[in-house]
Predict the 3D structure of the following.
Amino acid sequence: MSRIETVAVLGAGTMGHGIAQVSATSGCTVRLYDINEAAVAGGLDRIRGNLDKGIARGKVTQASRDTTLANLSTATSIREAVTGADLVIEAAPESMELKESIFAEVDAAAPAHAILATNTSSLSITQIAAVAKDPARFVGMHFFNPVHIMGLVEVVWGAETSAATRDTAVDFARRLGKEPIVVRDAPGFASSRLGIVLGMEAIRMVEQGVASPEDIDKAMELGYRHPMGPLKLTDLVGLDVRLGIAEYLHQTLGSEAFAPPALLREMVAEGKLGKKSGQGFYSW
Ligand SMILES: NC(=O)c1ccc[n+]([C@@H]2O[C@H](COP(=O)([O-])OP(=O)(O)OC[C@H]3O[C@@H](n4cnc5c(N)ncnc54)[C@H](O)[C@@H]3O)[C@@H](O)[C@H]2O)c1
């Protein structure tokens, strides 16, 4: 198992900024990169906002806020971000081609000992790892949204992932104060495979006029004690993100339970992406 001191986070969106924040809070030196410069600035703003809210709620100390921000810096290229990194965590959009191209670049510039991790919600770790020289150092680290609050990390073990890499990822997740679970590389892992079925079926129920989004969510919240209904959760995750995962699971697992409903495709095409765009099944 290797000690992680320097972390590169690639992608500064919904997930990347949170992963950078919790890594910096744990004492690591963190470099945040995004292909979109405005997203990096936006990510840093969100981190400051999360920390300030934490202070107001008595959950974060001023000293921890200052350390977190001091440990964070930004990079203007993948090469700059991953040079000298012990761990690289990618949090770019859910596309196999994109992740493969990012990791080809990472692999050429990262140190030989670096552990390469993807935050993919569903894609094959084994397939992405195939672009790396040493797939034994490749692992899935699936965080949950919002990262600074949610306690779970799925550590996904690809066909070539070594036990040492898996153990380092488990150890790192614990260091971030998270509870890791270890999952074999199967589409959708342990979480998205179940979560997407519920989400797609809830959207089909809206399509069929079974009940309003509010009442479908209430059914799960009050009837099943889910902390949040599947439609609100879809808004929070991003409709585009969930569509990408559903398409992939439909393709790889074959079950119609994963088939994205027409309503989901229409809403994504109209730019109704959920919380991040201001409109989804709810207005934000
Ligand atoms: N949103 C969620 O709730 C959630 C939860 C768990 C896992 N995930 C997974 O995390 C990953 C990121 O999702 P997100 O919701 O943060 O997406 P997002 O759209 O909020 O952010 C993605 C960021 O990646 C950047 N990006 C695009 N191409 C890039 C490149 N070549 N190099 C570096 N950055 C690039 C984009 O500019 C954007 O800022 C996806 O694989 C998703 O499936 C998402």
